[in-house]
Amino acid sequence: MGYTIKKDFPHVMSEPDQKYTAFKERNPVGSYRREFEVPAEWAGRRQFITFDGVDCAFFLWVNGKKVGYSVNSRNAAEFDVTTLLKPGKNMIAVEVYQYSSGTWLEDQDMWRLHGIFRNVTLWSAPQVHIRDFFVQTDLDKEYRDATINVSAIIKNYSEKGAVSQVVTATLYDRNGKEIARGNANGHRLNAKQEESLQLKLQLANPDKWTAETPNLYTLVLSGSSGEILSTKVGVRKIEIKGRVFMVNGVPIKLKGVNRHEHWSDVGHAITEEQMIRDLQIIKQGNCNHVRTCHYSDDPRWYELCDEWGIWLVAEANMEYHGYDKKFDEEPTIKAAIVDRNVANTQNFKNHPAVIIWSLGNEGGNGGSNVRAALKAVKAIDSTRFVHYERFGTGKNNPADLDGRMYGTAEDYANVARNKELTKPFYICEFVHAMFNSMGSLEEYSQVFDNNAEILGGAIWEFQDQGLWNKRDPKHPILAYGGGFGEYPNDHYFIHKGVVAWDRKTVKPHFPEMKKAFQWIETQLADPANGTIRIKNKYQFISLDGFDASWSLSENGLEIAKGKLKYRPINARSTGSANVPYKIEHPKAGAEYFLRISYTQKEATLWADKGFEVASAQFKLPVYTPPVNTIADVHPLKLEENVQGIVLSGNQFSVSFSKKTGFINQINKAGVPLLAPNGSPRLHLWRAAHRNDDNWAFDMWERFGVTTLNYKLVSIKAERVSNAAVKVTAVTHADGKEGFGVYHTATYLVKGSGNIVVDNQVSFVGLRINLARIGVRVLFDKSFDKMAFYGRGPFENYADRKSAADVGIYEIGVNDQYEYEKPMERGNHEEVRWASFSGKGKPPVLIQADEKLMQVAALPHTDEQMYPVEYKIDLPASTATVVCISTKTLGVGSASCGPRPLESFQVFSEPTRFSYTIKL
């Protein structure tokens, strides 16, 4: 989006274009006042006030006296207010400005919400105060025994000299038992003087901290002034060896998400309970990593990540893509860029979850200003590594990690093979999850697993950032950019995420992430003997904490199941097991699937006992005898005149129009099945996913694919037998710029009620991308239930289907996941058959040929969905819209990343497919 004010650095109140919201509201101000009382026992101590988050800048007054100013919205602002407080009631006042000099460095793509949105804390300390401390851990060469180094800064805030201080560091285990203690003696401090004291603790083989084993100790620091502070300590050592990133001597992989601090009902003012819910979902999705995009998070978040086990890339509050290269070298903004990174490092340096510092996001090409920030961060903390994506890769990158966002999986495989590179490679953003998207995640994960040089990456992003607009109670919308009339805005770029806004509704992206990132891999090694190979991809834990089971299905129905036993499999190791399934008498024409499941043996912070953490499904190579076909003996009546063709059989009839070549109506037991103009018609496009914009959808409009009008070329009926008639209809449509299509549909109608439809499709003109090659049928809207045998239960596409097991599922046409911006959805891959039913309607079954089919059933057509901005504005449904396709375009992530891989694209090439309608 860039900036919401006129781009006129350093000024923030210059007159913008009249369509800007800021034209009328040049710099709104919010004012806060609150009375409070200072506890009597604080007398003689120092009093401080800390603001954890105020957007964008503010002035502070206490009892009418101006205290100070802060301009970094996402880092703590701390003020010493000792001399301004008085016994009894006190008054605090805050004036918050929407725009300030900080605006130029806070150009993140998100809702620009302003005001006090995090905790404000009044606190007290003795006059001689442990102002700061830094806990660093190290391991010996065997990664067994540990050293804990503590640096404590003692400051005398008083106007008088102070006696020398003794600082004691005591370490406790999780049971509260003291396991180590050390002291450091300070010197006599003069007024306002401070000094740094060093302590060292030795531990023999302590429990180590990792994202899989978040073992924490409690360190208590006590000063002779009576002050007691505590922090959690995780013992771990971070290293880079060659191009491999290691923790505790073990190569690790980061598989995770970018997470904005946002909930759709509260904006950025999130609670601890909401943070915990986010962590539950993240861990349940097999993520071990979060990037705090694109700013420092609430301090409580880092504490929770220490406790729950998350590898954090802790990013500073800096993004200036609206000015980009200008700020690389701008001297007047250098101090602010450095300050934001120093604040991020100082505030969160004691958290074991933080393993990488990120200097910010999308700002220039990493010029001298950002390089100064790198130097400042390294001066504070030499135990962690630093990343900044705009530094790029290769010898000119001064950071510790290479990186590039939004490449293809093959791009990153090539990076791993590039022998000229010398650093681990971290992908700070990939598979852009906007609306119906997030294709090929499985391919990315495989590249991570197969290449030690690739550290991993973070999906963009965790949750949809919609924001409820309920100003009109009759028209509530989960708004994206512009939904409140504001301009400029990020439009659709606000609405993207692996999980839905409410963290309850299962969005189809989430199971795909969970499956792609799962840490237990299963391979079918020997189907004849039921041998599977189990690979433990966890980096630090064995599989002892999981139960395993198997199930066998026949034509989608479970016929056998059992527990699975195997010998212990340690971290980063492989084992095997035998699955005792038997298929003694295979059913004619049946297919058999074996499913393996791994579940939690015991409850954890993030999952109940029995929660499934990994699974695999395999189609078994079982020989089955062919199905005996039964000759159709039901007679079929043929009536033909100038207007059309009518075929009547066993309680059904089908009528064709000789004017259009399409089916007029299908009746079963006297009940019409089709909506008006509901005949199967060739359908080649879709209501655009936002990933289709700027390439595929533009192509469909350019070549007229979205407006094809099919005209009859020829139609004829031929009696095949007393029980069968073949109707062949050829239609043709002209698009634009020479594009055209011919469709030959041959309907073999049998007296039993089976209609075998063979489709031959050929194209004229350039070879172009299509959304699908298939037909669309409009059933009566009463057909509101679909059962199917294929991949499900949630929607899936060619490049987002690994989590969707093959099975039999039942769904409501109106109950499927719906994106806030209407678009094509609900696709199911590898469908064998699909059945449609509804109140007062006889069921209709559609069966695939040997190629299988993709099926989607929705309450609206693509033409109805595409122009509508919010789902609440869709018209009332007039039909159940069923698409039966032989090829369907994948979803990709082209809204901010690559298109679907070519293997998941659809082209205007000669195609033949068939399906059978069973009445």
Give structural notes.
With 919 residues, the chain is mainly beta. It folds into five domains: 21-125, Galactose-binding domain-like (Jelly Rolls, Sandwich); 128-236, Immunoglobulins (Immunoglobulin-like); 240-324 and 344-362 and 376-463 and 498-510, TIM Barrel (Alpha-Beta Barrel), CATH 3.20.20.80; 518-619, Immunoglobulin-like, CATH 2.60.40.10; 637-918, Beta-galactosidase, Chain A, domain 5, CATH 2.70.98.10. Helix content is 10%, strand content 38%. The strands form 14 sheets. It has a nine-stranded antiparallel beta sheet, with no helix packed on it. Strands 24-23-22-21-20-26-25 form a seven-stranded parallel beta sheet. Strand 27 and strand 28 (477-479) form a beta hairpin. The radius of gyration is 32 Å and the shape is globular. The mean pLDDT is 96.
